[in-house]
Amino acid sequence: MSAILTVTFNPALDMTGALGILQAGDVNLVQKYNLHPAGKGVNVARVLADLGAQVTVSGFLGEENQDPFAHLFVEHGICDRFLRVPGVSRTNVKLVEKDGRVTDLNFPGMAVEGRDIEALTHTLLELADGHDWIVLAGSLPPGVNADQLSDWVQALTEAGKQVVVDTSQHALRAAVSAKPWLVKPNEAELAQCLNAPISNELDTLLARGEQLFQQGIANVVISRGVDGVLWRNHQGWLQAVAPAQEVVSTVGAGDSLVAGLVWGCQAGEEKATVLRRAVALSALAVTQVSVGVSDLDRVYQMIEKISVSPVTMSAHAE
């Protein structure tokens, strides 16, 4: 199997706290919490490593608080090619209420300078020689604009790599213009990307997803939370739905989905098989606070419960 590279431009130490009900404007008592290295690409890499993939990570990492990240990569056998830059990687706060609702406090991250961008560009092109699958994930730090992300997508795609993008807002729109191999927006991110309101009606989602596919995106994956996942490629649309889970936290669910998609696609599996595993990983992710796969047997059991079926747009859909 091919080695996989994940790139996290704006990593973070995620402080996740559990509490009963969040009371805005008041003192809230957090019942338990943990602090762990994260960022979308880091999370994807961790799940991939748990599945047995050979994974390399890169991006920008603050020199002053890099140790937790370095320890994580060693612990999971992940090749560390992050660029260390002056400063501190951000800390994000995620407050998980007992009903599963998550409130994110995401900070902007440390500023990145032009020389750092040039260095990462060099590193990515160097790493592309040994990695056919490249995941570009998460937000962009100050100093990196959306056009730069588009340039990276284009350069890596022209190098013959399968580029997967999981980001949002202007960054997603810019990345789409460079035609990556796969994008994975959720419903809100899809609406932002196309600058068009989107209801959660199936026909509307399929029509909007079709717009991206017709723009040259070979794989359009739309995550819908409890309503499942939609995937469009040259074989048409597939829909997958998992049974309802007791939600502990939704943190890392989308990253687990991306990891499952890349793991299955790089192994050359059939589309339905890939989608079942990816959705199973995502469904199990919401049952835990931490990110990763602790029990592969649970994944196999969940795979058997995932419903996968073709889906088509109605003739009157926009």
What does this protein look like?
By secondary structure, the chain is an alpha/beta fold. The protein has a single domain, classed as UDP-N-acetylmuramoyl-L-alanine:D-glutamate ligase, CATH 3.40.1190.20. 36% of the residues lie in helices and 25% in strands. It is built from ten helices and 15 strands. It has helices at residues 40-51, 67-75, 114-128, 146-158, 169-177, 187-194, 202-214, 253-266, 271-285, 296-303, and strands at 4-8, 12-19, 32-38, 55-62, 79-80, 83-85, 90-97, 102-105, 133-137, 162-166, 182-183, 219-223, 229-233, 236-241, 307-311. Strand 12 (219-223) and strand 13 form a beta hairpin. Helix 9 (271-285) packs across helix 10 (296-303). The mean pLDDT is 92. Keywords: ATP-binding, Kinase, Nucleotide-binding, Transferase. Pfam families: PfkB (PF00294). It catalyses: beta-D-fructose 1-phosphate + ATP = beta-D-fructose 1,6-bisphosphate + ADP + H(+).
Task: Give a topology summary.
Layout: E1 4-8, E2 12-19, E3 32-38, H1 40-51, E4 55-62, H2 67-75, E5 79-80, E6 83-85, E7 90-97, E8 102-105, H3 114-128, E9 133-137, H4 146-158, E10 162-166, H5 169-177, E11 182-183, H6 187-194, H7 202-214, E12 219-223, E13 229-233, E14 236-241, H8 253-266, H9 271-285, H10 296-303, E15 307-311
Parallel strand pairs: 1-4, 1-9, 2-7, 4-5, 4-6, 9-10, 10-11, 11-12
Antiparallel strand pairs: 2-3, 7-8, 12-13, 13-14, 14-15
Family: Belongs to the carbohydrate kinase PfkB family.
Keywords: ATP-binding, Kinase, Nucleotide-binding, Transferase
Organism: Salinivibrio proteolyticus
